[in-house]
Amino acid sequence: MALEQACIELIPKPWGATDLLPWSGTGHPSVPIGELWFQRCDKHAPEPALLLKLLFSQEPLSIQVHPDDAAAHGMGLPRGKTEAWYILSAAPDAMVGVGLTAPVTPEQLRVAIADGAIARLVAWHKPAAGEVIAVPAGTIHAIGPGLVLAEIQQRSDTTFRLFDYGRARELHIEQGVAAAHRGPAQRAAPAGRLSDGRTVLVVNPYFVFERIDLPARSIWDLDARCETWLATIAGDAMIGALQIGIGQGCFIEGQSVRIVPGEAGLSCLVAYDAATPSRDLLHRVDGDGMPRFRETVSPPTGPPPAFAVFPIPSTEARS
Predict the structure, then answer these.
(1) Residues above pLDDT 90, as percent of the chain
(2) What is the Cα 133 distance to its own chain's centre?
(3) Which listed residue (40, 110, 120, 161) is catalytic?
(4) Whole-model pTM above 0.90?
(5) Which residues contact 303 (CB under 8 A, 6 or more apart)?
(6) What whole-number distance in Å separates Cα of residue 317 and Cα of residue 123?
(7) Helix, strand or coil, per DSSP, at residue 221
(8) Which of 213, 217, 200, 181 minimizes the C-alpha distance to 278?
(9) What is the pLDDT of residues 184-237, one digit of tens each?
């Protein structure tokens, strides 16, 4: 059982930002910060299966690909890297790329990497705040400057760079070609309302990603039976004994916690280690703690959603 305020780890990156407001009040005038990781504060706690982070891009990140579980196991690694993003803000000219515009052979991909044509093969488009990106392992992807986004991923840092805009960093051509799907990204099911307050963003075998919006003067219980990460993107709330505001988060596992939104309500991203949405994740209660009504979620009908992109896409090499 655990309820912990997440520790914030700042990751310097040359493509990062020095002003992280409103997501972090800490100034970094001389050290650009590319990523803000939500971590467990107990260094002796078991390693989580998921990693939740915020990314701040001021320069283009590399065109890259991550291995799936099978490829990672073949390299002696514990897991691959499937990820999903939620766009928090986007400059008017910001671009993301996910998948290719057309299928290519392994040799065509090698040639495109060698001469830089891969930057024209990537399927680029303009993202908007509130859009969702699903990037399953094996999808070639990239992100340009001018974006702030939240990312949830399998806890892996294995990245194969295919193109890096002339920066003097190692490329991983053969590994990347072997891991890549080498074609357009699949379409994903659109984000959908699960119940009052709950919107499912991404569902895959590795995690469920949701947005929760709770009004002021309401009281809720969140039942986190498995590893669960929460990050506030608007408003604030008391979560158990923790006061959580914008850019802050918490880790919850194996227990139910009371959520009392502040005067502006609460909007947060929630990710948990499951393959299907939890039917009983959220319950509303009245002021004296007695149930007013119970949030329930009907199981999705039809086949599970395919890996794909919602109304958007993509991240950079982690070194």
Answers:
(1) 80
(2) 8
(3) 161
(4) no
(5) none
(6) 18
(7) strand
(8) 200
(9) 998 777 788 888 899 999 999 999 999 999 999 999 999 999 999 999 999 999
